[in-house]
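Lab meeting, item 3. Inverse folding demo.
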């Protein structure tokens, strides 16, 4: 632990500026700020106490005796206020300078000397009550100074010693038993206050150091987070570029394979045996499946946060368009779609439609024997809308519920339920770039409800 007021030992980082020097400077700046921030209030209290002391002592000494002392006190107090104003007006760099601390110490020492001088200038040889009052006010000034000056221990030590020692001396000089006892009492009080102020100073220094340490940790954490975020988004961009380039390049040879396989099938099917026709069928369906995979991958790669434009969207229109787009599947399955009036959202219309489309297609595809019954509804929560698509299909076992949003994750064979495993991954990416999320509730064998959140419409 660093000793009170001591700056941490200077340690030079070979790759950069001396780190400990900077910390020590910050610590000193914190201490100086604490010293000056209470000056105005402290000087008002000082002047009030000084005036009270002068008035009371004047009843025994007369006004002519107290005016010089009070004038001196007022001059020092006003200079200290002027010093605090100059500190506040100085530039932030200048505020770091330990010179302000030295100036404060000199002013504190001067103030201590004047309070100490009061024990001679305002001492009432004939009135013990006034002497007690003098000792009481001086002790109060010392105790009060702890809260104001303890941030820099030498300032307090100078003030309290210069205030107390002349008082101790003055009482001791009287030489009688009671006065000597008073001298000892004031001396012990001063010693105790010095110890207390030392402790308060340590607590202040430690709390300032802790604050700097915390700030340093927060800065380091923020730096790492932003570095990691930059790395991640760079990696994502590269992955997207690769996926998009690879899908483009793959499309052309694939089209050739599919076209020639189909040509082979139409022109030469009668010359092939059943095995040959079956094999060509495999090539054609494989090529179609691969094209679907590539299209989905391309669609996935194209979704990014920069995709314009984001506009207010009427989701009811999207659903009615999809009723038309999915007409064949709806009629073939006997699906019923109940759609409550939906809240408008804000985003990319093509992408939002893609999310609705994938969820509706899945709700129809992953049905049980009975016709699908799909319910679509939305709720508004602050500046977000949560849209839910509920079906009465086969449901999703609990352990797979988070995995299904990953690329190529499928729970069934493509002969039973055709698909590429890209639909929900695409929904997740689209909601993500809209700063939303997607999740699922499901009762296995009874149905699933997919929820996704999007920004609410702004208009
Ligand atoms: P695909 O539909 O092409 O298989 P998705 O990414 O859309 O791929 O879905 C991933 C998997 O999640 C599906 O293969 C299916 O097992 C499961 N799934 C998606 N939607 C539903 C649903 N409504 N009901 C039951 N299972 C579903």
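The presenter then showed the designed sequence:
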């Amino acid at each position: 632990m660093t000793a009170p007021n001591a700056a941490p030992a200077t340690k030079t980082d070979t790759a950069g500026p001396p780190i400990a020097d900077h910390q020590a400077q910050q610590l000193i700046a914190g201490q100086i700020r604490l010293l000056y921030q209470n000056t105005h209030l402290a000087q008002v209290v000082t002047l009030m106490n000084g005036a009270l002391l002068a008035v009371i002592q004047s009843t025994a000494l007369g006004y002519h005796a107290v005016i010089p002392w009070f004038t001196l006190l007022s001059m020092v107090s006003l200079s200290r206020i002027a010093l605090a104003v100059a500190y506040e007006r100085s530039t932030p760099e200048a505020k770091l300078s330990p010179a302000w601390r030295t100036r404060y110490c000199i002013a504190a020492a001067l103030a201590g000397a004047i309070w100490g001088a009061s024990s001679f200038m305002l001492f009432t040889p004939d009135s013990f009550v006034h002497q007690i009052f003098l000792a009481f006010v001086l002790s109060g000034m010392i105790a009060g100074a702890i809260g104001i000056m303890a941030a820099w221990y030498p300032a307090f030590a100078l003030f309290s010693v210069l205030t107390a020692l002349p008082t101790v001396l003055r009482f001791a000089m009287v030489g009688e038993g009671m006065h000597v006892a008073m001298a000892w009492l004031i001396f012990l009080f001063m010693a105790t206050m010095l110890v207390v102020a030392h402790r308060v100073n340590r607590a202040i220094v430690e709390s300032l150091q802790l604050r700097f340490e915390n700030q340093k940790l927060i800065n380091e954490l923020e730096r790492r987070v932003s570095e990691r975020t930059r790395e991640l988004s760079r990696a994502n961009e590269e992955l997207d570029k690769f996926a998009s380039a690879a899908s483009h390049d793959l499309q052309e040879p694939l089209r050739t394979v599919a076209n020639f396989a189909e040509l082979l099938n139409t022109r030469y099917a009668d010359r092939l045996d059943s095995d040959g026709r079956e094999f060509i069928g495999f090539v054609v369906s494989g090529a179609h499946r691969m094209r679907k995979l590539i299209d989905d991958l391309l669609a996935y790669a194209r979704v990014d946060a920069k995709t314009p434009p984001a506009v207010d969207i009427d989701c009811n229109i999207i659903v009615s368009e999809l009723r038309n787009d999915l007409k064949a599947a709806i009629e073939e399955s006997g699906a019923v779609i109940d759609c409550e009036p939906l809240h408008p959202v804000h985003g990319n219309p093509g992408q939002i439609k893609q999310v609705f489309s994938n969820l509706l297609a899945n709700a129809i595809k992953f049905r049980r024997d009975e016709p699908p019954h799909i319910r679509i509804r939305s709720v508004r929560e602050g500046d977000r809308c949560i849209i839910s698509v509920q079906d009465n299909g086969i449901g999703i076992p609990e352990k797979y519920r988070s995995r299904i949003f990953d690329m190529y994750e499928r729970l069934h064979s493509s002969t039973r339920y055709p698909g590429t495993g890209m639909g929900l991954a695409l929904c997740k990416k689209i909601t993500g770039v809209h700063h939303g999320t997607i999740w699922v509730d499901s009762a296995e064998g009874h149905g699933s409800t997919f929820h996704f959140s999007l920004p609410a419409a702004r208009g």
